[in-house]
């Protein structure tokens, strides 16, 4: 049920849809899937599901306070420090990762994050399914679907080594550059 609903959804939602008030994304727990009309990398297909995420995330000692609405909205307008999806997309799009603030946070800085937000508004679409305990289905989805932008629990994916190396190089370069705003 979840595989088909995320890979072939009845509707995909744009940034304008998601960021409108009150917006269509429910304020509940669930699983979300990201589709891209234009591929962020020449080695990846366009027009299909490339990434799934969950909200909230279950950690060893607690469950995060996130929900679908907060998480999906943050992916569309947040930054690479708080969004693995944005970090991955920015690296694939060859945006420059930088240390910001105190120097411990890594983002694409002001201009890069704005460029990524524009790219996502044009090419990224999202769908979701409500689920009270989304962490119980995440591993199964990653195992059953070809999700090249997911790294966690996804070492079997052929794109995993390339993406892991690309992100590591971006982090290394960022640490060699001065802190920016």
What is the compact description of this entry?
The protein has 181 residues and is an alpha+beta fold.
Written description of the protein model:
InterPro entries: GIY_YIG_cat. This is GIY-YIG catalytic domain-containing protein. Residues 49-168 form the GIY-YIG catalytic domain. With 181 residues, the chain is α+β, with helices and mostly antiparallel strands. The chain has 7 helices and 5 strands; from the N terminus they run H-H-E-E-H-H-E-E-H-E-H-H. It has helices spanning 2-7, 15-19, 68-77, 84-92, 109-123, 135-144, 160-176, and strands spanning 30-36, 48-55, 98-100, 105-107, 124-130. The chain has a 3-stranded antiparallel beta sheet. Strands 3-4 form a two-stranded antiparallel ribbon. A hairpin with a 4-residue loop joins strand 3 (98-100) and strand 4. The termini are far apart. The mean pLDDT is 95.
Summarize the biggest pleated sheet: 3 strands, antiparallel
- Portion of residues in beta strands equals 15-25%
Which regions have little confidence, pLDDT < 50, spanning 5+ residues? none
The level of helicity is: 25-40%
Number of structurally distinct domains:
1
Mean pLDDT: 95
Structural class: alpha+beta
How many DSSP-defined strands?
5
Choose one word for the global shape: globular
Number of helices: 7
The succession of helices and strands, N to C, reads: HHEEHHEEHEHH
Q: Kindly, what is the distance between the CA atoms of the first and last residues, rounded to a whole number of angstroms? A: 44 Å
Rg, nearest Å: 16 Å
Q: Strands across the major sheet, in which order?
A: 2-1-5
